[in-house]
Write a structure and sequence with these properties.
The protein has an 8-stranded antiparallel β-sheet, with helices on one face. The longest helix has about 35 residues, at about 460-490. It is built from 19 helices and 25 strands.
Length: about 650
Amino acid sequence: MCGIVGYIGTQAASEILLAGLEKLEYRGYDSAGLATISEGEITCIRAKGKLHNLREKLAEIDSPAPIGIGHTRWATHGKPEEYNAHPHRDNSGRVAVVQNGIVENYRELREELKAKGHKFVSDTDTEVIPHLIAEFLKEARSQKQERKDKKAEEIADTSFLETVLKAVNKLEGAFAIAVICADYPDELIVARQQAPLVIGFGAGEFFCASDTPALVSYTRTVLSLENGELARLTPMGVEVYSFAGERLKKSPRILGWSPVLVEKQGFKHFMHKEIYEQPAVVRACLEAYLDSDWQPGNPRSPINLNLPKELCADVEQISILACGTSWHASLIGKYLLEQLANIPTAVQYASEYRYAPPPLTANTLTIGVTQSGETADTLAALGMEQQRRAASTDKFRARMLGITNRTESSIAHMMPHVINTHAGIEVGVAATKTFVTQLMAFYFLALDLAHQRQTISSERLAEILAGLRQLPTEIEKFLEIQEQYVEELSHQFTETQDFIFLGRGINFPIALEGALKLKEISYIHAEGYPAGEMKHGPIALLDAKVPVVAIAMPGSVYEKVLSNAQEAKARDARLIGVTPKQGVAEADIFDHILPVPLVDELLSPIVTVIPLQLLAYHIAARRGLDVDQPRNLAKSVTVE
């Protein structure tokens, strides 16, 4: 949610800021703006809507300013109007700030500042920050006596830095900010508290951004700020401090990404490209975690997740915390962990967990799942669980594990152990390849635990592993042969207003995920249900105008799903079957069939989700919608 970009160096900042913001569009936004310093004045340009509106305004201005900050805003406090867009300034126009996150105590600060004569022109929480900094600058200028505070001496001649330090220590909540001041035209100050912020190192120029895609076109040398850290960027270098004012020694790292990863490479949309990348990312997971030399009977596990044995030793229960698509992946994880490893598993919405946590249970492994590694609700729930168990020892001690696609993210710093899903950068807001790789992580974890606990035979384990190895090829075949049919079918549903998705067993979460994808990018109302629950209420919704997608994979519930589909057909619903079978029975029941590869029922979610992703994509594209940046949504949900 929201995007921050900052630059200080020798080039004109405006184009660099705008290009960086374009790389962060996937985070979701409804307005944008930037501020630069030139000839002792701040120029601030803002626009409602997409970045092309901001670019049009900037075309009218010639600005060679070598320092600036930019922002894309996803509205939280105040409507998505230009007057609420960032950057925000103080009344004198000398201080400009962009912010991600929420300042929870902004009302109290606003009233304090109003009492001192400050006037506010927006509805945002962010606007208190430049006013607060301006107030501290005013106080600093009026102080005549010598400073005696040791920490102030350590950062002597840095009054701008001091005032920003004072300001951030007054803020409560989760935030990342970038600040410039017309009186300090060679300084860009950034701070992080529970919201991501990365610094980029160039040759005589420095960058900051809320995510690395904004930086990779300019530098691959980056430093991620930790919570409670602040940095001063000047043309001479970068200094990092704690919120207490203590100078810190930090070392940057080199990104392994190429700028081409954040390009469409011939595809019309990033989502379409990322659907086609799924065979490759499944292969990447197999190569990363599967021992290709393992044979049945070998006492060594065929899975290498680099997790210490004590993490899962004697585990009696597993608790999984997640949101959105990650929650759907976790439901499949629950099925795998219970059916393969025989471990009772609960999946909780992270956003609800903090407010009604269950009683502490012994020998419990807590898993947090987030593709970005920055999901605020998930991080907060995991933090609470760590705190609840901090004083416990032995059976009630904290056993924590993260599953994420971003090993440099907040969850990777918070969790002692992480499974990297190896999906690579995903730009489209609607998750596709990150969902599939989360499933792969759960397959590997469940199979590793099953091997350790000897809950399945070596022969069955070898059979599952062989099936996993075949998945990339099966997905490639489907994409090559069936996508055209899915696209043609999608043309029939551009005016549809409601969809129902049905699944049973391990494919019920795929019904939920299929419905979510359609809702997210086509804005069609869609719901997913366990197929057996239709007759307990939802069947009342069915008529000839409501298509029903039924996932029917051969296995333990195949005949049951066909029976439930027939119940829908009897109510005149238009039936779409996701199934590998195309016999007489299937042709009689389904109006349309999306044929998928025949795989082991246990592995079927990896193949059944692909046609549902494509169906949602092509319906949305046919409707002329912004597939990669659907309205009101953000890729990285960094507010609670």
